[in-house]
Amino acid sequence: MVAITLPDGSQRQFDGPVSGLDIARDIGPGLAKAALACTVDGEMWDLTRPIERDASVSLVTAKDEAGLELIRHDAAHVMAEAVQELYPGTQVTIGPAIETGFYYDFARNEPFTPDDLGKIEARMRDIVARDEAIVREVWDRDEAIAHFQEIGEQYKAEIIADLPAGEPITVYRQGAWKDLCRGPHLPSTGRLGTAFKLTKLAGAYWRGDARNAQLQRIYGTAWATDKQLKEYLHMLEEAEKRDHRRLGREMGLFHLQEEAQGAVFWHPKGWTLYRTVQTYMRRRLEDAGYVEVNTPSVVDRALWERSGHWAKFRENMFTTQTDDERVMALKPMNCPGHVQIFRQGIKSYRDLPLRMAEFGSCHRNEASGALHGLMRVRAFVQDDAHIFCTEDQIVSETKLFCDLLKSVYRDLGFESVTVKFSDRPEVRAGADETWDKAEEALKAATNAAGLDWTLNPGEGAFYGPKLEFVLRDAIGRDWQCGTLQVDFVLPDRLDAEYVGEDGAKHRPVMLHRAILGTFERFLGILIENTAGRFPLWLAPVQAVVATITGEADDYVREVAAALGRAGLKVETDLRNEKINYKVREHSHAKIPVIVVVGKREAEERTVALRRLGGSSQEVLALDDALNTLRMQALAPDLARLASESEGADQRDQVA
RNA sequence: GCCGCAGUAGCUCAGCUGGUAGAGCAACGCAUUCGUAAUGCGUGGGUCGGGGGUUCAAGUCCCUCCUGCGGCACCA
């Protein structure tokens, strides 16, 4: 007898070994049809694998996250079968399910072409139509290795040889084809359905290591239903429309060109946006007790040797040699410069924490393949700062920083932030005891700030552990923006010191920190997140005043001038065009407010406001419109100040 | 940096097996003064990414370099 407990707590008795499919049939034919796999005491099992002991079982269908993952994993297998049928001699390696689909890495001398994708996909649909049963087998380890070597599957043989000793070696057959796989799998290829599509070809290194052979990866997407697939493809199209590179061109924000690879040409509108964000950040930093500095871009190699950058960061640095043979480097980071300022004069413990900020212009020679629009550039400006403090101040400074960071992200339209904790990397400066201390201190501070974090092992900076603050963009990509790094190494290498309460000299700790990360990347994320429809305070052109007839020209100039005095960035449109044409054009340009003025408005001294995305307009007296827009165009921090002082005024009146 | 793909007008793209470049939008000009997402007519615009080669002839074929795109690797 086998007793099976179902998720609702009910129990069913079976005479002997029973499979997930048997259980599903026992419950009902609908479930038997929908079931793809089952979990046995929490572990995923194939639907047909016999359960020989009492267990808790739940059935997995395409509606479950786990079911969808099975579908994707099977799609990878069916693709591998199709590829090996069509291109004999191709070796299979690994093919997992991923976030929106699957991939499989193949070893083949001939490159796959985009045309091949269509052929492979068609063959996949044949295999699905054949509805081949998928059968699990457990093999002997040595036999498995010998077998895969014999049939020329070197990579599979290598994988088996590397599996831990106790691990069962399972092979899945579907029709005449078989693959080493941990499983589980669908009962048959027909269950995969039709909601899949091959999407792209790419190179990928064996085991993710650039020193290994390069394999050919084929990506696909797979879903439970055709409707989901269609929705996903539609989402991709929408994402493409808000790609910051496209919007940057369409909206005239910036451009890139080959003579300055990885460096941005900011156009007037883009630069206005940039300056709006920068001015905002400058205010926030000042309010948070930072001082702003500026340090040299071209600095003698000697300083980078002392700081450790020459040893650890050399390959990413641009260098230049002067006629007298001095080697200079373009700064890739601002920290050594800030230590030089700290070292001027004698610092006392009373000066700490010293929060030193710089909108530091840095250059890094990033790999050509890494460059990506504004997101990954070679010339960029960080909202960088270094907090020189005592060890005792690490926790409170970290907490203050995290609060500031969250507030800034919220103001800029980002609510959810994830945090990664990166500990010591292989290539690093500083003694292990120093790292122990730094990691411990940062962990304590993170917990004190009430942050949830995930560990990112070995990803710290060469001088210290770090926190990474990650935002997700509109296309679902994660971008690291903010960072906070604890550094006991640089103050030592560059000989920073302060006089303590005890009158003796001490090393300060440096906290390297940035909120936006770089302006370039952050603005790219901002463009994609808003799809170019910036909130009023950020829009580089906040309002266009457009005439209906030439008779209103003088009044329009007056309105525009008044809006300008109220602090808005305004343009006028006096062209002899129909108002339909103007509204359409400015709407496409994503201007937040179109101020429409005709003969009637000019006579009545009113304006008609039309908001981006809306289809109606609001007619207001000019003075009212000026007040309303002036308040709405305030940066969030200034708006908070304004509402506070308004509250104070009201309290004064009451008193 | 590696693998694959691509580069034709400001933008989006067409140009079959080689015979000396085309559309829409944009721009410019003229007419139109028209009340909330495209007024009409007309005009100009291209060393077909750079270099080299094959050929009577190259946007088209070959080589090479550059840049971009998608991944991988990298991302202090």
TrEMBL record:
TM helices/strands, residue ranges: none
InterPro entries per UniProt: aa-tRNA-synt_IIb (IPR002314), aa-tRNA-synth_II (IPR006195), aa-tRNA-synth_II/BPL/LPL (IPR045864), Anticodon-bd (IPR004154), Anticodon-bd_dom_sf (IPR036621), Beta-grasp_dom_sf (IPR012675), TGS (IPR004095), TGS-like (IPR012676)
Gene3D superfamilies recorded: 3.10.20.30, 3.30.54.20, Anticodon-binding domain, Bira Bifunctional Protein, Domain 2, Threonyl-trna Synthetase, Chain A, domain 2
EC number(s) from the headed UniProt entry: 6.1.1.3
This protein's UniProt keywords: Aminoacyl-tRNA synthetase, ATP-binding, Cytoplasm, Ligase, Metal-binding, Nucleotide-binding, Protein biosynthesis, RNA-binding, tRNA-binding, Zinc
Catalytic activities: tRNA(Thr) + L-threonine + ATP = L-threonyl-tRNA(Thr) + AMP + diphosphate + H(+)
Gene Ontology MF terms in the entry: ATP binding; metal ion binding; threonine-tRNA ligase activity; tRNA binding
Keyword RNA-binding carried by entry: yes
Residues the entry annotates as binding Zn(2+): 335, 386, 512
GO cellular component: cytoplasm
Domain (TGS): residue spans on this chain: 1-61
Cofactor binding summary note: Binds 1 zinc ion per subunit.
GO biological process, one term: threonyl-tRNA aminoacylation
SMART domains given in the database record: tRNA_SAD
Compartments where located: Cytoplasm
Similarity annotation: Belongs to the class-II aminoacyl-tRNA synthetase family.
NCBIfam families: thrS (TIGR00418)
Name this polypeptide is given: Threonine--tRNA ligase
Annotated organism of origin: Roseospira navarrensis
